[in-house]
Amino acid sequence: MSGLTSTGKRRRHVSAAGFDAAGCIAERTPRQLRRGLAAAGALLLLLPPIAAAQTEASRSDSFRLEEATIEGIHRAIHDGDVSCEGLVRAYVERARAYNGACTQLVTLDGAPVAPARGPVRAGSPVRFPTATVPVSSILPELDRYTGIPLDLGRMEPTVSDPAVQAQYGMVAGVPNAGQINALSTLNLRGERSVTCGGGCDAHPSTGELPANCPAVCEAFRRQPDAVERAVELDTQYGIDPDLAELPMYCIPLAFKDVYDTRDMRTTTAADIDFAMDAPPADATIVERLRAKGAIIYAKANATEFNGGIGNPGGPSAATARYLGYSERSTWGGQACNPYDTERSPRGSSSGSGVAVAANLVTCAFCEQTGGSCKGPASRNAVVSLLTTKGLIPYGGAVGSNPLVDRAGLNCRTVEDAALVLDALRDSELGYFGPRDIYAAVPEGLVSTEPYADAVIEAVPEEGDDAPGEKPLAGMRIGIVREYMVKHTLNDAAISDRIDDEIKTVLRDRLGATVVESVDPLYPNDPTVPDMEYTFEDALAEVLPIHMPEYFHKTTPDGGLEFAVPGHDVTSTRYLVQLAEGDAPLSPQVNLRRVVLSPASRSFAFHIDQYLARRGDERVADMAGLDANTKYFSAAAEAGSANWAVLDDIRAEGNTERMQMRAVLQLVLARVMRENRLDVLVNPENTLPHQKVGGPSEPSVNGRGASGSTQTITALIGVPEIVVPAGFNDVVYEPRFVLNAAGDRYDAVPGSERSVLDTPLPISMMFWAGPGDEAAVLRAASAYEAATRHRAPPPDFGPLPDEP
Fold this sequence. Notes:
Helices cover 25% and strands 14% of the residues. By secondary structure, it is α+β, with helices and mostly antiparallel strands. It has a domain at 476-588 and 654-773. The strands form seven sheets. Strands 8-11-9-14-16-15-21-24-20-17-18 form an eleven-stranded mixed beta sheet, with helices on both faces. Strands 4-1-7 form a three-stranded mixed beta sheet, with no helix packed on it. Strands 2-3 form a two-stranded antiparallel sheet. The longest helix has 23 residues, at 652-674.
């Protein structure tokens, strides 16, 4: 590698010998020194059995695939330590070793089931566990349950390929599974499509298309797979690619299976029997990164249709009840957390976060409607980057609600995420993508400099920095206490850990000035100054004029939700007094509550629009999709049937969301301006990982089962970065309880403290106003450089023959 960035600027890097590019002794962390010493031994790059023999020049005594960065890969290719083909084949071997099923069926009696064959991945079919879990180990008092039948686990054929089976009904995570199920499709010839599977995807050099293959497979099989594309790059560029033109040269990327890839199956992670399961064109981001040299390597497992198919209401009702946490795909199954395979990786972009965490890919694209990028990042100790709404174009992808859907990135470092973001900039269009109506972002909100230039790659060792040299000196950071309230016992440990990290790292070590917002449920911290103007102040000023109807909301018993004793909160008099600071605001009006809104039906429009553009002969609209799709739960089947007959998409949900977006954009701008803030910070989540198949923490005070920050940045459409912030080992396991009537199971908070054998990742979330990507990158990267909290999951380490 030449050491040049995509803009031609020379980037300082450390060689295997511990010297930088200028020949000076480089500062290295103890972990880097240990790795350097290990790499200096006899370790050689031995390609997997499926690879051709490599020359000595392509073998490595320095390059490590585990935790490899974009710059590290480019340097290794330039130095002859690894070829592009060798790199891709090494990733394939990791998928072969670790990308299997990690959940087991929940059955009535826990009896074993017959062996079953799943889809082929990395050359071998997925094998499902035959052991099952008795439902009585999850749900108490089954003899008293009188509700509709439970949707118990079972193996059944898929509709896409009846020769392939999948898990249906309730499942649970397998402890110490050794598998994580992160990638649903690999771009490997013969297995990357069901429509054109096996011999129908044979290379054209092998002869004519077999007579039993669909005619469309002739064009499909002419596209190289990931390994063949790597060989092409090696042949064309050798060890000297033009990184200015190809900044993503040979970087294996995965994409959540909502992004169209013309050379891989794309079914929104669902079991849909398309006439042709690979779409005719790439999504905008796939097309651009393919042109910038990336290896379009895999589709990441995900919750089908992003957060699930949902249900708009209608004539169909579920015939069985599904219980237990999952973020799941009928075709791909449930991804599992690599730090504890029994527990949640979060979703809906679970496979993206898990694949990056376990070093199955370099980076992966996620999608976020609420928390679908930051959740898997937080739970799996990786970085999540989301930009101002529309900056990364979403054309050629299926969303859940276009108003708030955004493309995002999961990488292992902030710098890698910034480099991929820079690579998405088109030489003519910039970041604009004509297929996305939200992509016409005002030019003033788009940086004219590379975003990677904002990244702080290293900070002085603690105690070595002279006055004035602290990396974040002069930066003002606001702590959002609304997202740190200890609603239950389970919120306390992570909230306290993040509070300590903010004060000891961001403030004391890195030199930022921190102030805190005020929430009546969070005790005031005497060591941190209060914001002079709070979110409560801003909501009191902005809501009355923009959404007076908000104060008319009622509780289930008919009372006013935001009542204030001594005031008629629906009157003009009260609203004026509130805005002028002469009347109090209900404490129920806070950042956690105002982002909650009624349901939307925009998915009906969006899915029909996507299918019309895709042009499949069999699945042309939602009715066709429902007729050609199989779901893992009866609840999803009912939801799909109701979407299929829905013809009126009017709903108050998006109307209220659009109003609240305008309100919160003003609120955020006012709070940041009045307090002279550059960035805001809070935990991504204060709740520990729940178990797959188990109960989740119930919602309390607007803090949902997946935390408080799910919606705020998605609704406003502002940049955010999640960075690993350490590990937590304290958990109060929530429980299922049967209600008094005996017809419903509810989740209740845990009350018994447990200490986990394996601590699990937690994360810090940095966010700011529209167009403030550079400030967020600077703060997040400085924190990352100062702490280096990320550690790869120990159960998914290097393979014996891995570089």
